[in-house]
Amino acid sequence: MKNYLDLIPVSAKIHRRQTRMTRWCIVISVFLIAAIFGMADMFLQSQKNLAIMIDGAWHVAFRGLDEEQMTFLSARPEVKTVARYAATNYKLNMDYEVGGVQTVLCGFDETFLEIYPAAGLLAGSFPKGMEEALVSESMRKRLGLGIGDKVEMTTPDGSLSFRISGFVEDTSMMLKTDAFGLFVNTDTYLSCFREATLQEDFVCYVEFVPHCRIQKAIKEICGQLHISEDQVSENAKLMGTLMQSSDHYILMLYLIAFLLAVLVAVSGMMMILGSMNSSVAQRTEFFGMMRCLGATAKQVRRYVRVEALFWCLKAVPLGLLASVVTVWALCRMLKVITPTWFGGMPGRGVSLPGLIFGTLIGLATVLFASRTPARKASEVSPLTAVSGNADTVFAATRAAHTGRIHVETALGLHHAAGSRKNLILLTSSFAFSIILFLGFSIGITFMKHAIVSLRPDSPDVSIIGVEDNGGISDSLLAELTENPNIKRVFRRDVSEGMSGTILDIQLRDQSDDVVEEIRSAAGDAYSFSDSRANNRETRAVYFSFALFVYGFLAVVALIAAFNIINSISMSVSARMKQYGAMRAIGISIRQLQSMIAAETLAYLIGGLAEGLFLGLPLHYYLYHWSITSRWGDVWSMPVSECLVIAAVMITSAAAAMTGPVRRIREMSVVETIGI
Amino acid sequence: MEIMEVQDLCKTYGKGEAKVEALKHVSFTLQKGEFAAVVGESGSGKSTLLNCIGALDEPTEGRILLDGQNLFGMGEEERTIFRRRNIGFIFQAFHLIPELNVEQNIIFPLLLDHKKPDFRQVDEILEVLGLQERRSHLPGQLSGGQKQRVAIGRALITRPKLILADEPTGNLDRKNSREVMELLMKASRQYQQTILMITHNPNLITSVDRVMQVSDGILTDLGGNINEKLS
Predict the structure, then answer these.
(1) Higher pLDDT, A468 or A364
(2) Phi, psi of A604, rounded to the nearest 5 degrees
(3) Hey, which of A115, A277, A463, A519 has its CA 20 to 30 A from A386?
(4) What is the ipTM of this complex?
């Protein structure tokens, strides 16, 4: 040893058991913080992926720009991709048809395929010439087309003929409405359909370069090119996930997320602070001995702080590793269950913000948290070490009330409430779990409002029969019901707008072949609606959202459980010598159990009361900002959420007692009190 | 009247080459009201003997009978309750409960039995110990000598069959040591209290009834006669 601080690793080996809990506490706190931030990061990434898949990778759309404005816009350095786009008959209310089927007609630049992955090119190439067009996959299948074939489109102004240059995927809207799509390049579109298209239906989609401050860029572009505000629209979901939205509501959501992040960080800090305080308190004799041997108060302070950093050496990487595994597992679940939508998610679950926040908050907390114990340790009088009073962990300032209740219960309550500081620290850390849980539970309400989930009777495909054509025949219904690939068929009569019958079909086998089979069984007399793609989108959105919202809640519940288990364990460890002495005098294990139960109960009741007192107003305001302001729902008492977290806490408290009681049972009185 | 009998007591720690025989076939008896001291060098086995007699540690072989009851023939819970009713402890490091005041610390063994203390008896003990003025003080507010007097009071309150004192003056100065010894003597004489004290201080054994020496785990009775002293 060259320096007194070299004693730290030596002491760590000897005090391995005493400091184990503190080290675990750091591991778990770092894990929880890194996991929550990592999950938040992955949540944003998943929602970003989803937004790109469903709505496209564009950030802003400008309507009704002229050629000159367009040229200036493409030349700007912050603009990555510009794609012109125009559409006709997108409401399917005009006479644009191919083979007698309503057809959406679009013109766009080749770059549009880059920023709108949903319209993926399945075969062939982008139409270059004036008479070339891409057609949707459903048109290929139903009309039996190939590349190079001619396709005739009837329009209100006569018919037009195009040579097929390739095929693109059907969008969920086209499948649902059973419509075809025909896509030409922008120049062809302008020459053929300029007259038929309103100026505001010419849209210019813009994707900015990464890390660009988009709001600032939009402002500059609008100012310089004289574009009015109502010509600009944002891709709200994508901008939201990029934290670039200008939407007031989304800004409010950012604020709520920030508030919750601060709460998570604070709860991690409180956990580490509590365990470090206790770790120092247990080694009063050791620090007294150091002072006895000539260490200055400053040296003891430094010792405690360097020791804390020494623990971090192993604890922080371990916590980070655990968080990476958790986030990886969640991402794996997303990728395995919905590969189409989340195939692009990072595979290893390494979230840089998660790791950075975990490390920073972990280290900062440990350093900050070690200040008080370091001061306490440096204040230990050298006399303490030799006077035999070192086991007096928490100096009592008033006596316990033993008059009316059993002495073991009275002592348990006194252990909890005897030191006001200790009581506040522990009940506050318990309360924090409730506050966090109530805060995060808003996510479920938000999810239920923001995302329309599939109803149990949502159909995969529907067959619509109009009354004028005789409705839907019973023989078709019977045939479909007997088909083994069909799970359920619902028949409903409609009278709004048109009168007729709709058969809603839920499939057992979701493949295209089965849908084709149903379509051919129905024949051409009926309209057909394929909602599979739309359902898949809805499921993916709901699943990805639910996975993270419930993931957050699970982590918060874990924080609560760990915190309680750790606090009780610490408290018992700190008084082990006292329990040993009591055992020698004749207290039974059952009585010690009651003593610990009374102490636990005091923390639990205090924590619950404090948590609800602070958590309910927080829940009210978060609800008001995120739900009432948007959907108008009035706040109501979150009874089920309160019950869930209370159940988690009560179960954890019961579990928390088993470890310490086992230790007491196995304790050697002689060794514990050193006689 | 014979209050305690130790029969062929052996205590071994470790196995194989690390095996240590802390007590080797120790046998002796104590009469009611007898004040005996066990002396021996550090590591001789005297603390092990006290721990076994106090039922804090289990002997490898042999029996200990207290008032005819075999200490290790009963279950854990039963033994704990038997101990708190029949054996009083006085430790070198006092081991008072920091959250209880002087009076509560003294009546603690009774409270554990959920018994209502007889306050006349408590007053009497406080008076004997000279602690009336301190009855509401917490241990943190007492001197070492006062703490040990509280520990003596705690050992006396149940009128146990045996008081075990482990170096009771080890943490005290000469004046306090003398006072503590006087109190123990007084308890022995006034209440006919049987006391077994462990010490390495030769000055303390001059006033006891009987002295035993432990050396290398073997106990030798150095003599003294209870009747002589009492007379």
Answers:
(1) A364
(2) -65, -50
(3) A277
(4) 0.86
Asked if B117 and B157 count as a contact pair (C-beta separation under 8 A), the reply is yes
The share of chain A scoring above pLDDT 90, in percent, equals 18
Q: Fill in the DSSP letter of residue A83.
A: E
| Inter-chain residue contact B51 with A415, CB threshold 8 Å | no
Longest dimension (CA), chain B: 56
Distance from the Cα of A272 to chain B's closest Cα (Å) equals 27
Token code pair at residue A314: 């192993």
CA distance A182 to A377: 78
Contact A399 B100 (CB under 8 A): yes
- Nearest neighbour of A670 by CB, restricted to B56, B80, B100: B56
Between A92 and B229, whose confidence is greater?
A92
Chain B CB contacts of A400 below 8 Å: 99-100, 104
Chain B contact set for A398 (CB, 8 A): 138
Domain count, chain B: 1
Q: In the structure encoding, which two tokens stand for residue A643, read together?
A: 């019950």
* pLDDT given at position B189: 87
Domain A461-530's class?
alpha beta
Tokens in use for A612?
């609800």
Q: Do B98 and A585 touch (CB under 8 A)?
A: no
Domain map (residue ranges) of chain A: 1-55+246-390, 60-234, 406-454+532-675, 461-530
**Structural domain boundaries enclosing B185:** 2-230
Give the residue from B165, B22, B31 showing the smallest Cα distance to B92: B165
β strands within A109-219, DSSP E: 121-124, 132-136, 150-155, 158-168, 180-185, 202-208
Q: How far is A304 from chain B (nearest CA, A)?
A: 26
Task: Give B89→chain A minimum CA distance, Å.
Answer: 7
Rounded to an integer, what distance in angstroms lies between the CA atom of residue B106 and that of residue B146?
Answer: 12
What pLDDT score was predicted for residue A642?
A: 94
Which residues contact residue A422 at a Cβ distance below 8 angstroms, ignoring those fewer than 6 apart? A394, A416
The pLDDT of A211-236, averaged and rounded, is 87
Residue B56 is nearest to which of A387, A392, A584, comparing CB atoms? A584
Q: What is the DSSP letter of A455?
A: P
C-alpha to C-alpha distance for A313 and A285, rounded to whole angstroms? 26
Any idea what the CATH number is for the domain that residue B197 is in?
A: 3.40.50.300
Q: In 3-state terms, what secondary structure has residue A368?
A: helix
Rounded CA separation A437/A644 (Å): 9
C-alpha atoms less than 13 angstroms from C-alpha of A594 in its C-beta half-sphere: 12
H-assigned helices in A451-588: 474-482, 512-522, 532-574, 576-585
Of A593, A459, A471, residue with least CA distance to A525:
A471
Query: Whole-angstrom distance between the N-terminal and C-terminal Cα of chain A?
Result: 32
Q: Are the beta carbons of B194 and B162 closer than 8 angstroms?
A: yes
Q: Work out the angle between the directed axes of helices A532-574 and A248-282 (0-180°, nearest 10).
A: 20
Taking the CB of residue A131, how many other CB atoms lie within 10 A of it? 13
Alpha-carbon distances, residue A55 vs A116, A167, A541, A556, B176 (angstroms): 7, 20, 12, 32, 88
Facing B99 at nearest CB: one of A414, A588, A674: A414
